[in-house]
Amino acid sequence: MKPKRRVVPGTRARRTPTVRRIKPAIVPVPRARSMPSASPPQAGQASEAVRREARRIVAAHPSVGRPTAGHEVAALAAAAGDVTIELTVELGRGLTLATPLIAAAGAFGYGVEVADQVDLARLGCLVTRGTTLKPGAGHASPRMIEIPAGLLVGTGLQNPGIEVVLERYAPAWSGWPVPVIINLGGESIGEFVELARRIEGVPGVAGLELNLSCPNGARGRAAFGLDAGSASALVTAVRRATDLPLIAKLSPAASDVREIARAVEQAGADAISAVNTLPGLAVAPERDRPALAAGYGGICGPALRPVALRIVFEVAQVVDLPVIGIGGVASIDDVLDMLAVGASAVGVGVAALADPMLPVRLADELADACRAAGVGSALDLVGSALPVRPMSPSAQGAEYGRRAGRA
Question: Is 125 a known active-site residue?
C-alpha cells in the first residue's frame, strides 16, 4: 500500500465528494469457477495428461518469470482444475470488473454491433465509442490507413448524439451481464457537464470515461489533457454533476503526463485510462497532401505500445488510482507487460476489430499465466516492473541522462 498523502498547510486539500447511494446500473455476473479440492496433486501423483497440460501452461507464459519447483506444483494443480484464480478488479464507487480485460473505446461501437459474436459476460467491461452532446458526422474519407505496425485513424467523433444513444442502446445495456462505460467527448466543460447530467441515473450505464484528448474551445482548442489546469477543471465539474464512476483518459501528447495524472486524481477521478492515440501524419502516395482527409490522425496498434507502456509506468508511480493500460495490446505478453508497469486492467482496441473474442481469450490466458506464476490473483502481477523509488520523468529527457534505478 502507498502511504497516505500528507496535507501541506497552504495547499488545497483533496475534496472527498459526497456519494449518493444508488442502485448500481449493472451488477456483473461472476464467472463460474471450479471448487478447489482438499489438496493439490503432488508432482509424482499427476497423470501424464495433467503433466502435459502443466508443461503447456508454464511454457506458454515465459513472461511471468523463470519456472521454479513452485511453478511446477502450481501448474500441476492448475492443469488438474484445482486452482481458483481471482481476476476481479475494483475501479471505484462500487464498479467491479469480473476480469481485467476490457473492450477499449471504439473497438465494439456501442456493443450491440458485436453482441452476437462476443460472450459479453466474460468481458471486464465494454467502453463505448466516443459520444457527444449533439450528433457528429466525423471526418471525410479517407479516415484510416495502414502504417508500419499499426493504423493511423482520423475518424472524428462520429456518433448520433447522447439522446439517441441512450434511447437506442441503454435498454439493451441494462439487461447485459457486463458493465457499460460511455466514452464522452466535447469542446467545453459545459458540454461534458451536460452529458453527465443527462446520463445520471440511466439504467445500464455503469460509468463515464472522459476523453481528455478533446479540444478545449476555451483554451484555443488545445486538448484538455495537455494542461493540468484544464484537465482538473473538467474532472472537477463533471464530478459535481454525477455520482457515476469517472475514468480520465489521458493524452500521450502531454509533455509531462504525471502532472495531468496528479491533477485528475485530486479533482475526483476514480480511475485513469492510459493512453489515447498519439497524433501522427502520413503522406498520400502522390506526396501532394496528407493521406487522411483530416490531415492528422491517431496512431494505434502495436506501434503505440511502447508509448502506452511508458505512460502507464510513469502514471502508476505518482497516483493511487487504478490505471487501465491501453495501446497495442494483442497478446498475453502484452497484457503481462501492462500489468508489470502498473496497470490494474488492460484495454484491447484495434486487435479486437479483427478478432472480437480476443479480450475473452486473453482473460483465460491471464488466468493460466497466474497459475504458471504460482499466484492466486492477477493483482499479484501488478507493478512488478515498477522501481522502488520514482524514476525521473521522461519529459526531462531521462533516456539521455542517468537512470534513477531500483534501490
Answer: no
Beta-ladder partners of 295: 292
Ranges of each domain in the chain:
47-83, 85-399
Give the orientation angle of helix 189-199 with respect to helix 162-173, to 10 degrees: 30
Q: Show the beta-strand stretches assigned E in 177-256.
A: 180-184, 207-211, 215-216, 222-223, 246-249
- Please give the angle made by the CA atoms of 87, 93 and 96, to the nearest 5 degrees: 20
The active-site residue out of 125, 214, 300, 370 is: 214
Q: Among 140, 158, 104, which residue's Cα sits nearest to residue 300?
A: 104
- Which overall architecture, per CATH, does domain 85-399 show? Alpha-Beta Barrel (3.20)
For 38-61, how does the pLDDT look when each residue is reduced to its tens digit (9 = 90+)?
A: 344 444 444 454 455 555 555 655
Which residues does 348 contact at the CB level (< 8 Å), separation at least 6? Answer: 101, 102, 103, 104, 107, 329, 330, 358, 359, 362
13 by Cβ neighbours in 10 Å (0-12 / 13-18 / 19+) ranks as: exposed
CA dist 296 → 211, 276, 291, 292 (Å): 18, 14, 9, 7
According to DSSP, residue 380 is labeled: G
Q: Per the structure block, which three cell numbers stand in for 4?
A: 497516505
- To the question of pTM greater than 0.90 for the whole model, the response is no
SS (H, E, C) 187-202: CCHHHHHHHHHHHCCC
